[in-house]
Amino acid sequence: MSSDMDLDALADELADFAAPDKKTGRTAREERIVAGFEDIQRFVAQHGRAPRHGADGDIFERLYAVRLERLRAQDDCRALLAPLDHQGLLQGDPYVQAADGAAPDDPDDDALLADLAGMADATQEITTLRHVRSHASVQAAEEVAEREPCADFERFAPLFEQVQQELKSGVRQTRPFVRDASIEAGQFFILGGQTVYVAEVGETLKAPNGENDARLRVVYSNATESNLLRRSLQRALYKDDAGRRITDPDAGPLFADAIDEGDSESGTIYVLRSLSSNPYVAEHRALIHKIGVTGGKVAARIAGAAHDATYLLADVEVVATYKLAGIRRTGLEALLHRIFAPAQLDLAIADRFGHPVKPCEWFLVPLQAIDQAVACIRDGSITRMRYDPQRAMLVDR
């Protein structure tokens, strides 16, 4: 975040403590007033005293002192905060003194902002304005670990350069990041306009909600790194409208260097995700995938999905495709279904005539496992692999 953006955010927050012109939006204003008062309370708890005015004081302490005076001066603020004031901060001047013992000057917002602008490059602590952020931004910051300079970035710089070249040449592609998609070591993503590399994945740990998580070492293309949690990175990528997964290098059509025009055995492996409102499907949407092979266009294949029990009588989205050439499509589809048979979806739905139908091409597997299966087909190792539902990956037999 730039200094200008920080100063604008600070100006907006200070404006909230001015007397309101209207009664509209009071709930939002009250929430921000409480958040600002809690900042002051944390300062008092840390320093054992209320914030003071004075040119020699920390810019945030001066900000808190001005803010406290404004809260004291407004009856509605005092009424709102009185139940929370366990430190007696709203009681009057005896608790707050000027740094030199004299009556404090009342610096205006412009003066404070000017001070901040002059100090914006002094330390990261002031540039990020940690003490004056809203609750929403604080929560977001807690989800994503703090970044720090990457001491051994020279190890990763060639990887970032290679990825950029492969994206330009078409060897790699970018795809939208879907909710809860897998994240593994060695993968690249785009987040906030920067390329992100997952250098390491730590041991599996349990999140507060009982789901599995892991601590990652994530390196960014601007030579910084962080050790955020896997689920935090998933959320950040999904919430970012421009968040993308960078695919692995495209090795070209399977078992052929090129697709000859008219090759009857060419085609596409496609992976679909259902948009069904069925409660079970909705709950496990990120893991339920349909795996198929077609010799035509995938778009034409799924055109009538909402009226076909094979597609769970709902629209679908294409989440991955892989080109084929020189291979028998039906045999390949049967192989993929056999590999993932231990995770076949056990779900029956009623067709348009009310007859129960149990689609057989849907599996409870993460997209990463399907990528792994395609890679094993490419290198010929698929014949010695099996799918382990407990580990959600292919393992050697």
Automatic annotation (TrEMBL):
Name of this protein: GIY-YIG nuclease family protein
Stored SMART domains: T5orf172
Domain Bacteriophage T5 Orf172 DNA-binding: 283-377
A Pfam match: MUG113
